[in-house]
Amino acid sequence: MIQYKKVAFYTLGCKLNFSETSTISRLFDDAGYAKVEFEDTPDIYVINTCSVTENADKKCKQLVKKALKINPNAFVAIIGCFAQLKPTEIAEIPGVDLVLGANEKFNLIEHIEKLNEKSDTPIVEFESIKNTNEFVPAYSIGDRTRSFLKIQDGCDYFCTFCTIPLARGKSRNASIADTVLEANKIAQTDIKEVVLTGVNIGDFGQGGDENFFSLIKELDTVEGIDRYRISSIEPNLLNNEIIHFCLNESAHFVPHFHIPLQVGNDRLLIAMRRKYERELYAERVQYIKQLRPDACIGVDVIVGFPGETDEEFLDTVHFLKELPISYLHVFTYSERANTTAVKLGEPVPMNIRRERSKQLHILSDKKKRAFYEENIGTIRTVLFEHEEDHGIMYGFTENYVKVKMPYDSTLVNTFNKVQLTEIDRDGIMKATLINE
Fold first, then answer.
1. What is the number of domains present in the chain?
2. Closest Cα partner for 74 from 112, 108, 45?
3. 1 part of a folded domain
4. What tens-digit pLDDT sequence spans the chain (436 residues)?
5. Which CATH number covers residue 268?
6. Which positions ≥6 away from 162 have C-beta within 8 Å?
7. Which of 350, 374, 398 is the last residue of a domain?
């Protein structure tokens, strides 16, 4: 066996990837490896990849090159969505030693420890995604303030722009009882806030006896977790029952929803194979605001989908302008192999995609500022984080307003009542502590 001692991890992509990297890193801890930073000359580099955008693919190649500059003799393992989708392509990147698909990534240590020597030929291990049926629980630890708890994996939706079902397989999850056990493990740490993550978390239970609503009611009873956030949930799966529970009944779920829209035009929603029309989306937003006018609502939007006309893009812009939302995550459409979107219309020129993205980023800034202005003067509870930036510390209110205050180590990882006073030049909210 090759004697490797130090390992470094780098994660690309979503919160789900972060939860899985953290879980894999704990397996290395248990096996006696020392976890170090990327620049600290590790013996092993583990790069957990994403394949949602073309940039993530390029970033993977750049990271391998960077790793080998730091330690030319390092063992480089690539796991994650890109590894499942394009294992042969990754194996051709100079310096890559091991490529593991979706089924194999949680057995990374076993693969490394059975090697007798570093080979000139990369080892590639992956199965057809159709055989990926096991759910492996995961949660992140490392940020003292919050943890990403994986409650679901895979997706059965097959939206025409998305490769995730090809990279992660069918929708699946553990039982509610087993998921609560994982939450209880987090509750034994110093972590105060848990973010529920997955590929399509609202599909928890896949129509069986257990469902997402039943899950969140059980999680709400776990002692030792002060806050839950729902990372992202499809509008057709975010029913009024869930909304009402989170906003009016729950002791721990915060008034913050992130709801993917993608486009505000019904023809394009059908072309994307989304499972709702924009009217349903508007109903969900209005119901949230009816119950809690101060609730934060984030939105995912894609610009430049094949065949998207100027008029259809303006449909999205006008729709979003009228909705009482708080911020946007804007994605520029990029062509992905093995998706049907590329056949559905004329490609939108890249310069137009970029211009549309710019317009929506401007709209997002306006929406966020308007939301923050509505919160000026209100009393909120902030969970402060441990990072210090030139004498400043940051935290988030329950409704996801980012707050800054002079650094005070006694406030780290604690909840504090504050009054929101003004928006600073960097767009972050200033506040004053309220001593109770």
1. 4
2. 45
3. no
4. 456 689 999 998 888 989 999 999 999 999 999 999 999 999 999 999 887 656 666 788 899 999 999 999 999 999 988 888 888 888 888 999 999 988 889 999 988 887 766 667 778 877 777 888 889 999 998 767 899 999 999 999 999 999 888 889 999 999 999 999 999 999 999 999 999 999 999 999 998 999 999 999 999 999 999 999 999 999 999 999 999 999 999 999 999 999 999 999 999 999 999 999 999 999 999 999 999 999 999 999 999 999 999 999 999 999 999 999 999 999 999 888 888 988 888 999 999 999 999 999 999 999 999 999 999 999 999 999 998 899 999 999 999 999 999 999 999 999 999 999 999 999 999 999 997 6
5. 3.30.750.200
6. 52, 155, 336, 339
7. 374
Residues 6+ apart with CB under 8 A from 289: 295, 297, 324
Q: What is the pTM of this model?
A: 0.92
* CB 231, CB 15: distance < 8 Å: yes
- Whether 294 and 349 map to the same domain: the answer is yes
Cβ-contact 60, 48 below 8 angstroms = no
| Cα dihedral sign, 386-387-393-395 | negative
Distance CA 392, CA 407 (A): 5
Q: Write the CA distances from 405 to 49, 141, 357, 368, integer angstroms.
A: 35, 25, 32, 20
Statement to judge: residues 319 and 370 lie in one domain: yes
Range of the domain at 390: 379-433
Residues 284 and 235 in one domain: no
Flag whether 350 is in a domain.
Answer: yes
Same domain, yes or no, for 134 and 237? Answer: yes
| Residue the block writes with tokens 């978390």 | 201
Report how far residue 118's alpha carbon sits from residue 213's, in angstroms, rounded to the nearest whole number.
49
Instruction: Count Cα neighbours of 411 within 13 Å in the Cβ-side half-sphere.
Output: 25
Nearest-angstrom CA–CA distance, 336 and 84: 14
Name the domain boundary from 374, 389, 405: 374
Q: Cα–Cα distance between 76 and 64 in angstroms, integer?
A: 7
Residues 134 and 249 in one domain: yes
Q: What is the CATH number of the domain that holds 25?
A: 3.40.50.2300
Q: Are 173 and 198 in contact (CB under 8 A)?
A: yes
